[in-house]
Amino acid sequence: xxxxxxxxxxxxxxxxxxxxxxxxxxxxxxxxxxxxxxxxxxxxxxxxxxxxxxxxxxxxxxxxxxxxxxxxxxxxxxxxxxxxxxxxxxxxxxxxxxxxxxxxxxxxxxxxxxxxxxxxxxxxxxxxxxxxxxxxxxxxxxxxxxxxxxxxxxxxxxxxxxxxxxxxxxxxxxxxxxxxxxxxxxxxxxxxxxxxxxxxxxxxxxxxxxxxxxxxxxxxxxxxxxxxxxxxxxxxxxxxxxxxxxxxxxxxxxxxxxxxxxxxxxx
Length: 267
What we know:
This protein is an alpha/beta fold and 267 residues long. It has 2 domains: 2-210, 2-enoyl-CoA Hydratase, Chain A, domain 1 (Alpha-Beta Complex); 214-261, Orthogonal Bundle (Lyase 2-enoyl-coa Hydratase, Chain  A, domain 2), CATH 1.10.12. The protein contains 12 helices and 10 strands. The chain is globular. It starts with a strand and ends in a 6-residue tail after the last helix.
């Protein structure tokens, strides 16, 4: 694994490494459990922009250095002057939400590697990623109502879509921790793995995605995004248009040729 140009030193809030066609974006405030502030948000967005623009990168992994993926927002930025908390919150949320939109619109899949006690915006970030691998000793907890506020980071949308309104209300209002086992059962994550294998397993999943057909994977991601809110007829039309677009590409020609040659495709 090699470090990319986005890594400006061990003190940077975000480090970027490359592993073949996989970008590994490491949240790097381990002493704060990777709690997010404006500088980290901007650094994550820069790393995501590099992933978007680098044709050699086909997938990405978001992972936290230290023992936690992300413990929500760094509350010390509010404590400095609680009288201006609303203004500070607006700035942080605007940046964080822009980052989440960039993840959702990125044509390349992003995998969250979830470790530790993940709270607040860390939960929203993990759920906004396309796929998630979770350490077997990790937990998700909303935490917002305990602070006297409502969720951000798309958490109300993601949780309600995944588990239904009643369960989402329970998890967010009562701040019930969700274990890795339960998160897997609820469909909030794709895999539960031993904590010591988290990075390896997440990067392996990203490698497998990177070996796939880039346009096809981008189109699948887009179709899944619309499926939850689309009517059946409209989704059929989107699927038709997408298949026709893919069928005109070298990727499709290689896939069909490989099928009849009885060999793995080389995308």
